[in-house]
Amino acid sequence: MQNYKKFLLAAAVSMAFSATAMAETLKMGIEAAYPPFNNKDASGNVVGFDKDIGDALCAKMKVEKCEVYVSDWDGIIPALNAKKFDFLVSSLSITEERKQAVDFTDPYYSNKLQFIAPKATADFKTDAAYLKGKVIGAQRATLAGSYLEDKLPETEAKLYDTQENAYLDLTSGRLDGILADKYVQYEWLKSKDGSAYEFKGDPVVESDKIGIAVRKGDPLRERLNKALAEIKADGTYKKINDKYFPFSIE
């Protein structure tokens, strides 16, 4: 009888833990202003590569509910550390500076930094001598913004709160060019507004590793890494990749 009672108690504890796991809710943070990786559709819903990856990871971790929280880019890491969400999947470059504030998963895609400028500017070059005095746009608090300030100090860097605002100034003639992630630029160049512009030169940064951020020491990092490996192994990742790009960004 005692063994039977112990069995029932163990079963009850196991069921309680399972119910807790099944009822888990995780909150993902996204900027929602960086298409095709993250933005909002006509109905105001958050969509994009980052959102799809986040949803796929939650499914692999068997999370009952995965909620999306939108944050301005400048405050997105502070919002994570203030526990406004649990993980940040918003095309965040893995940098030594950011590692001081958050922990990163394994990279979930790789990007490159490349200039775009008007097709009519046939002589556009990406060297420091040509870019001296030129007005080049980039998003604030990004690898591109840091590159302009650190590598091209004699270039007039204009930094924007969103990538979309940089494009607005480019099309208004206020910028000579933009430096940003290649795959974001690739998407914009296909648009009507971007049709008069093109990539210039080779990428200036060839391997920009993008990771998912969690708070320092959070064990969620290992769960996300395991889920990321699983969606790459079972073809889920490739399906999401192919939805947005005709080439692999892994």
TrEMBL record:
Residues 25-248 form the Solute-binding protein family 3/N-terminal domain. Residues 1-23 form the signal peptide. Keywords: Signal. The keyword Signal applies. The keyword Signal applies. InterPro entries: Solute-binding_3/MltF_N. Pfam families: SBP_bac_3 (PF00497). CDD domains: PBP2_mlr5654_like (cd13702). Belongs to the bacterial solute-binding protein 3 family. This is ABC transporter substrate-binding protein. It comes from Pseudomonas lactucae.
